[in-house]
Amino acid sequence: MCEVFLGLGSNLGDRAGFLDQAVAAIESLGKVVRSRWYETAAVGLPGAPAFLNGVVRLVTELAPDELLRQTREIERRLGRDPLTRAGSRTIDIDILLFGHKVLSRPGLEIPHPRLHHRAFVLVPLADLAPNFVHPVLGKTVSEMLADVDRAGVKAA
């Protein structure tokens, strides 16, 4: 069993509904606990609707590649265009941390390479695991959060 953290986001349609459906689908993969939902501006997408974001802690037996396959399938079922990785979307599921594994290969990088720069990920991650230590940076989630501007992240 491995403790995994997934980042979830939605900025189209019934955002909370898509997030809740994603969490329900992820529950089929193992034991799940989720953060609160947070609303944030769409980073790097001027004029796009605001995102609702959160983090899920998943305890699973799946290997990283299988988890990626499963999360991509959940995204597809919830209306995500598999060819569009950036832009507005019904659902986005990112593997943030996979225990203390470090992987880097095409299509899968763990820990998520921009995790430590994103308040919209770190704020909900701190709800669940403030003392989790980033396996590359050696900083806790709380320490990483202290290094970013979280002014645009508000509880939904």
Strand content: 25-35%
Shape: globular
Largest sheet: 6 strands, antiparallel
Number of spatially distinct domains: 1
List the defining traits of the structure above.
26% strand, 4 helices, six-stranded antiparallel β-sheet, single chain, two-stranded antiparallel sheet, alpha+beta, Alpha-Beta Plaits, 156 residues
Summarize the structure.
Helix content is 27%, strand content 26%. With 156 residues, the chain is α+β, with helices and mostly antiparallel strands.
Layout: helices, strands, pairs:
Layout: E1 2-10, H1 15-26, E2 31-34, E3 38-40, E4 51-60, H2 64-77, E5 92-98, E6 103-105, E7 108-110, H3 119-128, H4 141-146, E8 154-155
Explain what you see.
- There is one protein chain.
- This protein is an alpha+beta fold and 156 residues long.
- It has a single domain, classed as Alpha-Beta Plaits (2-Layer Sandwich).
- Helix content is 27%, strand content 26%.
- The protein has four helices and eight strands.
- Strands 1, 2, 3, 4, 5 and 8 form a six-stranded antiparallel sheet that branches. It has a two-stranded antiparallel sheet with strand order 6-7.
- Strand 6 and strand 7 form a beta hairpin.
- The termini are far apart.
- The model has no long low-confidence stretch (mean pLDDT 94).
